[in-house]
Amino acid sequence: xxxxxxCTDPGPGGLVxxxxxxxxxxxxxxDARSGRGAAVFVGGEPGVGxxxxxxxxxxxxxxxxxxxxxxxxxxxxxxVPYRPLAEALLALARTEGLPAxxxxxxxxxxxxxxxxxxxxxxxxxxxxxxxxxxxxxAGRRGFLLVLDDLHEADPGTLAVVDYLLxxxxxxxxxxxxxxxxxxxxxxxxxxxxxxxxxxxxxxxxDVRRLAAAEYGRAALPPELLRRVLDESAGLPxxxxxxxxxxxxxxxxxxxxxxVAADVRRRAERLGPDAVRLLGVAALFGERCGxxxxxxxxxxxxxRAGALLRAAADAxxxxxxxxxxxxxxxxxxxxxxxxxxxxxxxxxxxAARRAAHAVAELHPGLPGPWCARAxxxxxxxxxxxxxxxxxxxxAHRAGAEGAPERALALLTTARGLLSPAVAPDLRAExxxxxxxxxxxxxxxxxLPGDALEPPADGHGLPAARRAGLYARIAQVHALAGRPxxxxxxxxxxxxxxxxxxxxxxxxxxxxxxxALIEPSRLAPERLRTATGAARRAVDxxxxxxxxxxxxxxxxxxxxxxxxxxxxxxAERFARARALASPTPGDGALRIAADGCLARLAMRRDGLSAxxxxxxxAAERAGLAxxxxxxxxxxxxxxxxxxxxxxxxxxxxxxxxxAARRGMGxxxxxWRLAEAVRVAHSGRRDELREALGRLAPVVGAxxxxxxxxxxxxxxxxxxxxxxxxxxxREFAQALAYDAENPATGDFGRHGVALLCGVxxxxxxxxxxxxxxxxxxxxxxxNRPFAGLADAVLLGREGRTAEATAAAGAxxxxxxxxxxxxxxxxxxxxxxxxxxxxxxxxxxxREAEEFFxxxxxxxxxxxxxxxxxxxxxxxxxxxxxxxxxxxxLRRCGITVREFEVARLLxxxxxxxxxxxxxxxxxxxxxxxVSSLLQKTGHPNRAAFASAARDLVTGSAP
Length: 954
Description:
The protein is mainly alpha-helical. It is 64% helix and 5% strand. The chain contains 46 helices and eight strands. Strands 2-3-4-1-5 form a five-stranded parallel β-sheet, sandwiched between helices. The longest helix has 19 residues. It is flat and about 115 Å long.
């Protein structure tokens, strides 16, 4: 028996991912009910779900009115002849009763001996007795006989099955047997069956479905989902037992008890030498070679190879197709279960031998052998050697562009730290761990006290302690704890002192200051941060650290890009050039590419390069960079009006950031959601989004100004509440004056335009905004350009105003909302001062906002048209059928109906008859059409508009 739950019902998870196999069994059962029996052999490795599949087949048979009985081969105690057959027939006796004596054709005594477990029953007699019994039980309804784990069966049972295979086709009986693959008589019998079903491990999607069904409560916890995906190898038995054990910790080494018992049972069948060898092999992790295992266990290599091959045949191991002398455990739970069974003294001795064997067999410890050697030293009770190997392996992982792997190695290493470890080595572990967290954003993997180093500072020099505190400060900032980050930063500066000549430590502390100072509540915070960034660049360069210099240049560029876009681009490019082409510099290279792409998107409105850098960051495991870039893409999507796609990006981003503990990113994503609903003009949803933002608004610098500028103020404009918008833009400016923001909140765009229209801002304000780099952003250009046009119009320079407005609206091409809102805002000023095309703008804006379901601003546009004496479109059913050029002329639905017939040269009476209106009404509609379109008579209109009005496309 390979699945301990074999006698249970199929359970809540049912059969997942087995649809085709179920259909084939259903077909065989249908044939049996028609009198054509067959054998179905179900194969697959232990744990793949053969028993559960067989039980489900029996339940399906009973559901159709067929009889069914199930028997299995025993695995505990002495062998019982014909065990699965006897168990199945006893089950039949309990549920339906055995056939009358005449039904078994005189084989009653044979059947009694068979059911009593007495030996000496000739296989042929037993086979005939079983055949007659199931045939009699089948009657006309059909019968399913299930024999589980046939590969474990005794020779007598196999002989009976052999006999049944010859006679089933003429009976209404299906034999369903489960077998494990591999040589043996059971496999030979399977080859003769009409139906052979091989159950494969489940794919990731089916594993998710099964785990969710078994969990059966709320959403599947992410930790549990990762566990079953990483550890189950797609085997349903492991998925179910892992879900059942979740929260209880399972057995030794965190292995569910049922799984450990199954693994142990299969190992014990191979003998005590194999059990010990497998326990030693588990010390190497999930993979080891024959030579390494043999050395560690003190076994001759040929003998070790034979034992490991036998373990592979038992599905405890899998052979490496690229290296015949290497094996991997079938799943991580098997390695942990077998390793836990190794006695402690044996474990220490074997681990010590294994560590020396690895060093001897693999000079320099290439590839994964360094980390394996570290684990072996740890198991051998040699923490200093283990720590050195873990640190070395982590450095290699970082150099290979694998920060997640480096984090895992250093997290394990940290568990070995103690006061007895040398200060330098302890510091190296702490520094590497913090660096890995900063790159990966995996604050959820950070040990609880990792940000609280011992008060003695590890006995390190002041410069090194300062660097350690600076890293801790950065981690707090990433977690969205700015107060704690500033406290640690101040500690780092105090520890470093004012006259430190350690350039590397100075660069580290100043870089942390450049990143964290924007969170300090002070009007000079951006200037302070910029000065720190410049000092970090100089110190890193003096220390000969190109990588650190590159990160400092990126910080400096981000701090100055609103004032000096070109200078920021040059700094980003310099940082990119400092990143070597090796994988180890991948994080710096991707970060520089991201900064350059985001800067270009601000300028040109092109997002493809930004999306590529986001994907590159995700592939490299650089979550903070991916989230920073994703936030920029979300805002760009909102500005483009792709609210659905932006919403999906925001929801996924916030969920992942929260799971990782990245509080700063959570705040940014919540701000992005507030901006998204604000730009949709949904005030109620904005209140809800702002309520979610409020608890975390201090987690990132400048969010208050962005909240009032990008979200509250913009939404008020779309609600036509200009007084509220004025107050909210003023509040954004006040927040920025008190604590300057690092992100654009509309100061140089929509807030500037509103200020000009309200008379609060004039030419000096516009010129100062134009001199700032942020005004050149593609989103800001339409608003800043229209502000210029308004000022030019007031100055009487109408031609220049018209040209400025045209350029501004052309810049709004990627952002329809910005263009139409700008048209609505400046239409009245343009009409009063005699520049531009105010009526056309108001009409185009009205159509846009009406289609966007923003009635307040659409109604305001209609009011503007009435004020200008321009035709106002009536909003009646069917307006979408009116072509856009005619809608812009103010043509109504009824006028369009008249126009279509007019274009076909119908007279007024004919038009009246077709539309069921009076000729006088037709005459009024024709006159209105000519006036609105500017045609002198109906013939001219019919000639010019025929193609337009006879088509249906708007």
